[in-house]
């Protein structure tokens, strides 16, 4: 019994303590997309259906990543890339299925949502301490540079989170069914 207690005490001492919050070196994705979808849409007449597809995308809260004329296409096939708010992506898929046949797209997740409140708390704390400790940071230029880099990164993360609110990048090949 005593040996078991000693073994437990040694193993508990050997395991690292949980990291205190906040974890300052945690990185956050700056990618505006939560998911990337890849899929196909088979339609009866490509030329007649393309304007309807673009209208469905726009009515569904999405947009093309560039003008339609700049996408690669042929007489029977058209590549499209759309950006759609994540919350509206499934209703848009349903709308496009009314225009043609579309299997479920291949979905690749781009990571967890940005914890915006955590980012804002870190940003506020760093900014406050930088102002309050200007003299001390003047004596430690490397530390001041690190703080500036963290503030810059956190401000960029906050801007991305505010601007996108989670989007899906959807690559679609529209094909004329034969």
Molecular structure report:
This protein is of the alpha+beta class. Helix content is 48%, strand content 20%. The longest helix has 24 residues, at 141-164. The termini are far apart. Residues 3-7 have low confidence and may be disordered.
Number of helices: 6
End-to-end Cα distance? 77 Å
Helix content percent band: 40-55%
Uncertain runs with pLDDT below 50, 5 residues or more? Answer: 3-7
Class based on secondary structure composition and strand pairing:
alpha+beta
N-to-C SSE string, H for helix and E for strand: HEHEEHEHHHE
Largest sheet: 5 strands, mixed
The whole-angstrom Rg is: 25 Å
Name the shape in a single word. elongated
> Approximately what portion of the residues adopt beta-strand conformation?
15-25%
Number of strands: 5
Strand order in the largest sheet:
2-3-5-1-4
Mean pLDDT: 86
Question: What descriptive keywords fit this protein?
Answer:
disordered N terminus; single chain; 178 residues; 48% helix; alpha+beta
SSE layout and pairings?
Blueprint lengths: L1 H13 L18 E11 L2 H14 L3 E2 L12 E9 H12 L8 E4 L6 H17 L1 H6 L1 H24 L2 E10 L2
Parallel strand pairs: 1-5
Antiparallel strand pairs: 1-4, 2-3, 3-5
Helix pairs in contact: 4-6
Compact summary:
The protein is α+β, with helices and mostly antiparallel strands. It has helices at residues 2-14, 46-59, 86-97, 116-132, 134-139, 141-164; strands at 33-43, 63-64, 77-85, 106-109, 167-176.
């Amino acid at each position: 019994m005593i040996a078991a207690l000693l073994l437990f005490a040694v193993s508990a001492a050997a395991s690292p303590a949980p990291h205190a919050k906040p974890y300052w070196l945690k990185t956050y994705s700056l990618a505006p997309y939560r998911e990337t979808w890849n899929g196909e849409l088979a339609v009866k007449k490509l030329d007649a259906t393309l304007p309807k597809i673009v209208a469905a995308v726009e009515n569904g809260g999405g947009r093309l990543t560039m003008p339609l004329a700049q996408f690669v296409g042929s007489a029977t096939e058209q590549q499209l890339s759309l950006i759609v708010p994540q919350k509206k992506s499934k209703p848009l898929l349903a709308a496009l299925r009314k225009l043609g046949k579309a299997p479920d797209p291949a979905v690749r997740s781009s990571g967890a949502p940005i914890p915006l409140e955590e980012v804002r708390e870190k940003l506020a704390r760093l900014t406050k301490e930088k102002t309050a400790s200007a003299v001390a940071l003047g004596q430690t230029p490397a530390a001041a540079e690190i703080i500036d880099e963290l503030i810059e990164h956190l401000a960029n993360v906050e801007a991305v989170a505010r601007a996108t609110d989670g989007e899906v990048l959807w690559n679609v090949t529209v094909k004329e069914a034969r």
